[in-house]
Amino acid sequence: MKCFSFYVGDKKDESKTTKSVSVQSMNSMLTDREVGRSGSELNSQNVSGTSTESIGRPSFASLSQRPSNLRVFTVSELKSSTKNFSRSAMLGEGGFGCVYRGSIKSIEDPTNKVEVAVKQLGKRGMQGHKEWVTEVNVLGVVEHPNLVKLVGYCADDDERGIQRLLIYEYMPNGSVEDHLSARSEAPLPWTMRLRIAQDAARGLTYLHEEMGFQIIFRDFKSSNILLDEQWNAKLSDFGLARLGPSEGLTHVSTAVVGTMGYAAPEYIQTGRLTAKSDVWSYGVFLYELITGRRPLDRNRPKSEQKLLEWVRPYLSDAKKFSHILDPRLEGKYPIRSAQKLATIANRCLVRNPKSRPKMSEVLEMVNRIVDASSGTASPQLSFRSTMSMESSRKNTTKKKRSNIDLKGGESGWFARMWTPKLLRTC
């Protein structure tokens, strides 16, 4: 799944200096304005009518006063942990670097080792550094069972220059995208898909509504939802996250970044970011769980490449609805449960973002489906015992960035869905 990155609207909002919780003295700190000038992003013409209300929005520096329990690592420690960043320890490669499996000493018991995932940022451009800072700020001060835990970070110098690394809890069962892929040895059963939808909704609800401030994830997608040893789903990769609008404001005007197929149409057009942008992405994800298909798949016939357009004709006829269900499920699902999940997805994907439900409301609806299905569905434990751990050895996927193709973008989704205007990039 490709990512996109370009500017719409007033770029002044990106000029605030972003500071880390524990690394404010680093000489390599960059302002958002400097990042905006890096080669990894493209400028676009301004869109008339884009609000500049949010120029004074709070930055993640405001989180720096909160206590952080992050551990600080040296490069030598992490080299030892990952066998000198050996390819044999590599879990995956993203747009800003590689992720390695490693082990570190437990704080509680130094005689024990704890498995971790170590993300090493590459040297290309400055956007990676910006995301590194954001992850330290966000995950250093928030904690929830459905958010991947950041154990610590490294901002050290060695012979290769400054090293920027992030150390996370290890998620042995990879990403949801891995398991929905046809390459996965065993498909996710329906019960597990419902549990994943529930866990992801819990994570977003926490970010949006359960703290003293709001965080908009901005890059919600199946590859950023990881599964732990017990198959609990957790949101990961907060490098694109933004604080929500200040009190009295309706949105944040910001650079348009994310992943094609998931981004809300009004955000693509105007750069106006709200929590309802995440709600849209969650709706796309629900159809991903239902169908087993990617939101955008160029390898399929042209009429089937865009998931939301492909499912549309099947939703108005109950007799046709089963045609969009993931064939790998082999009919092992309660059709009523799948229809209810699609109904929730449709509410998340309405044209007007103000008409979309809050994530707490979405969670409540998903909870009802899970509760209703718990009596008839196969136990989650049986799934754990049959799944091969080796089939999910990679927990990150390639996230190479490219310009978004806005021709047709998210258009065509129901008669009432938003049809975004074309934006010319230069």
From TrEMBL:
Residues 40-54, 376-390 have a biased composition (Polar residues). Keywords: ATP-binding, Cell membrane, Membrane, Nucleotide-binding. Its main location: membrane. It is found in: Cell membrane. It holds the Pfam family PK_Tyr_Ser-Thr. Residues 85-370 form the Protein kinase domain. ATP binds at K119. InterPro entries: Kinase-like_dom_sf, Plant_Ser_Thr_Prot_Kinase, Prot_kinase_dom, Protein_kinase_ATP_BS, Ser-Thr/Tyr_kinase_cat_dom. Residues 32-60, 376-404 are annotated as: Disordered. PANTHER family: OS01G0588500 PROTEIN-RELATED (PTHR45621). This is Protein kinase domain-containing protein. It comes from Hevea brasiliensis (Para rubber tree).
